[in-house]
Write a structure and sequence with these properties.
Layout lengths: L3 E6 L7 E5 L4 E6 L8 E4 L10 H10 L5 H10 L2 H6 L5 H12 L5 H9 L7 H11 L3 E6 L5 H13 L10 E4 H4 L6 H10 L7 E5 L2 H9 L3 E4 L7 H7 L6
Parallel strand pairs: 1-3, 4-5, 4-7, 5-6, 7-8
Antiparallel strand pairs: 2-3
Length: about 250
């Protein structure tokens, strides 16, 4: 009887090689490591699916007479205005009142909302298609740092441009920081979403255009890919990673 060959994959090594097992007369073929099969794809919203232009908000405020939006933004960051709004600690009315204080003017609620929502763009049709395609092969979830003024605004955009009245229905689960009271890049935000869907962090791929969120996901035990919008969009990234290859 000749030697027996058994395929065996190991977690180290490069090219395939043959190791002789003298004691049993068996030759073992050692293959390169298997690519980790993802079962869940976790997507960001702003930048990944919907176009966002932060400078558009600055231009909108400037049109109302406030030319130094960068100062406003800096002051708001210092007192954690945006973080608090994104985690639901501040209501829309409290957010608007604080903007009026920083602006030192009597802007109306409608004016503030208009300026704040000016940064929201469109979701190209091909990005909705890639979500649908991914959904056929993976559990597809959404996790967005957002706020109670932006949520109805981008839902109106999607309804107007694509006739979709229930945006969350495009995913197996969709989560907004302002509703969860948790935000990226904190590990608790990622774990909250994955636990709700029985998703294994080690088999989850997170995609975001903010490097700090990508690092936060990795620290939480997920695989994470940084989407560099200067080089590609989520459609090209999915193709580059072979996420839809049979």
């Amino acid at each position: 009887m000749g030697p027996v060959y058994l395929p065996c994959r190991v977690i180290f090594g490069g090219s395939a090689k043959i190791e002789r097992m003298h004691q049993w007369g068996i030759r073992r073929i050692v293959l390169p490591p298997m690519k980790i099969p993802f079962s869940t794809i976790l997507l960001d919203l702003g930048g990944v699916l919907i176009d966002v232009d932060y400078h558009a908000a600055a231009r909108a405020f400037a049109a109302l007479g406030f030319s130094d939006f960068e100062t406003l933004y800096s002051k708001a960051q210092q007192d954690h205005l945006f973080d608090g709004f994104e985690t639901g600690e501040l209501t829309p009315d409290q957010f608007r009142d604080r903007i009026r204080e920083l602006h030192a003017s009597a802007l109306t609620d409608a004016q503030i909302d208009h300026c704040w929502n000016a940064m929201l763009g469109s979701i190209p049709t091909e990005r909705l298609h890639i979500v649908a395609q991914l959904k056929e092969r993976y559990q597809v979830l959404l996790l967005s740092n957002t706020n109670a003024i932006h949520v109805p605004a981008f839902e109106r955009i999607i309804a107007r441009e694509h006739g979709i009245s229930d945006f969350k229905s495009l995913f197996h689960g969709a989560y907004y920081s302002c509703e969860m009271h948790l935000r990226k890049p904190h590990a608790a935000a990622f774990h909250h979403v994955l636990e709700r869907h029985g998703a294994d962090p080690e088999r989850t791929l997170f995609i975001d255009d903010s490097i700090q969120h990508v690092q936060g996901a990795r620290n939480a035990g997920l695989h994470a890919e940084f989407l560099d919008l200067a080089k590609e969009d989520v459609v090209k990234l999915a193709d580059r990673l072979g996420l839809l290859v049979p």
